[in-house]
Amino acid sequence: MDIEREELKDLTADEKEGAEIEFGQGGKSGKFSKKCKIIVAVVVVIVIAIIVAVVLVVVLKKKEEVKKGEVEGPTEFVGTPIPNNTNIPPLPTGSCPPGADGPYSHGVVAADAPQCSEVGRDILKKDGSAVDSAIATLFCIGVINMHSAGIGGGGFMVVYNRTRNFAEVFDYRESAPGKANTTMYVNSSLSSKYGTIASGVPGEVSGFRAAWERHGRLPWKISSNLLLIWRRMDSDLGTRHTPLLTGALRHRAFKNDAGLRELLIDENGNLKERGAILKMPKYARTLERIRDDSKSFYTGDLAKDIVKDIQDGGGIITLEDLKNYETVVRRPLSSKMGNYTWLTNPPPGGGAVSSLILNILKGYNMTAADRKDLNSSVLTYHRIVEAFKIVKNMTNPAFGESLRQRIYDNRTFDDYKYYGDFYSSTNTGGTSHLSVISPDGDAVAATNSINL
Fold it and tell me: Any idea which residues are catalytic in this one (predicted)?
């Protein structure tokens, strides 16, 4: 849109210049009568108005599929430019540091499923932006690791634009239905985990669309179209599926869900084994409908189908809930770590906790030497893990230093109270993180979840 506004500015300036030339030819004295001036001024205004109207029509046609109200969530410019003194390092002139599979010299997509990283890579090869790649990759995660993320959940996405030195955060976490109340889970704590009554209003599709509208380069139908890459929406039952789903399927709410039984249970009533192919033709059709019209997820026929399924299962989400959902665009939190700038999501996200972890670790002045061998690596990771244990929700560097003094290099503590009453050891699933760096230096960090 900045380029298009510049074009409009140039056209208007040219038109004004032409008008001034015509004024100069209005007689030997170069002056007009008062009446002539008024007539010419009116003509100039009309001409400029026509040009503005024509340019606006062209601009509106350029933005494919985007109509007023189509992108759920705010569209005003509420991000934040990164200050010039933050010393963001330039991209390396040679290859990027080697990863698990070798050096990457053009771009990187890191997802928790190799197939999905490849989907994001292919989007970058099509000259897609970092956001285009992230959207395609996360749609893929919803297929391969459906227990971690998907269109029924939500998340946060931090987007960095290198050219503009600008970053913003998209908050598309689930929201509470309009009929939710403070006592709805009192009599049954399990109802907050199992069944459609536990569902929040999903934000993933809205968030993807909002991020694409501001940072996408490819048409939406390509960024959101996994079917261009996969002819069949199949999924291998991965290693992480079995322990998570086996435990979940013991609960009556899962066993009574016809959709889950059809997908995950074999003809003998047992959970399908690892390596089995999960056929998802209904989900494939849903993704096709999102590809063709993302608005349908919140206000169209797809929204009606979603609400019917939820309410048939006892849930309370309504069409009005979907219609009113909005993605929020926020300013990121930032902090320094050596010569690097850390950009993360503000509350209600957990970026403040991440910033506190960095404040704790600053005092160690870590360098590459802290991972030069096994012993130094173990100590480094020990310090990081201990820092994770004692963080809460504070970003004051002085507080971080006081907490660092509680970390011992030669021991850990079994008493959870040492780390504060807020700490407990848990092993939960239902979340997926993605990182993308595109060839132009733009970057995306996204965390998506279904809270399983």
Answer: 431 (nucleophile)
Q: Which two tokens stand for residue 384?
A: 């990081």
- pLDDT score of 325: 97
d(CA 63, CA 81) in angstroms, rounded, equals 24
Residue 168 and residue 349 in contact, taking contact as beta carbons nearer than 8 Å: no
Percent of the chain at pLDDT exceeding 90:
33
Q: What integer pLDDT is reported at residue 146 of this predicted model?
A: 85
Say whether 450 counts as a known binding-site residue: yes
Catalytic residue positions? Answer: 431
Cα gap 362→52, rounded to integer Å:
54
Q: Is 173 flagged in the annotation as binding?
A: yes
For residues 358 and 385, what is the distance between their CA atoms, to the nearest angstrom?
12
Is 164 annotated as contributing to ligand binding? no
Long-range pairs for 75-81: beta carbons < 8 A, 24 or more residues apart: 75/210, 75/213, 75/214, 76/329, 78/168, 78/329, 78/330, 78/331, 79/166, 79/167, 79/168, 79/169, 79/329, 79/331, 79/332, 80/166, 80/167, 80/168, 80/331, 80/332, 81/164, 81/165, 81/166
Structure tokens at 382: 């020990």
Q: What is the pairing mode between strands 431-437 and 80-81? A: unpaired
Measure the CA–CA gap between 377 and 361, rounded to whole angstroms: 15
396 annotated to a ligand binding site: no
124 burial (CB, 10 Å; 0-12 / 13-18 / 19+) is buried
- pTM score: 0.70
What angle in degrees, to the nearest 10, is found between the helix axes of 130-144 and 204-215?
160
User: Packing angle between helix 281-292 and helix 301-312, nearest 10 degrees?
Assistant: 140
pLDDT value of residue 42: 55
The DSSP bridge partners found for residue 278 are 235
What is the rounded average pLDDT of the residues 47-61? 51
- Point out the least confidently predicted range of 88-92, 185-189, 323-327, 345-349: 88-92
Dump pLDDT digits (tens) for 387-433.
888 776 566 677 778 778 889 988 888 777 777 655 445 555 678 99
CB 316 within 8 A of CB 175: no
Tokens 């007539």 identify what position?
Answer: 39
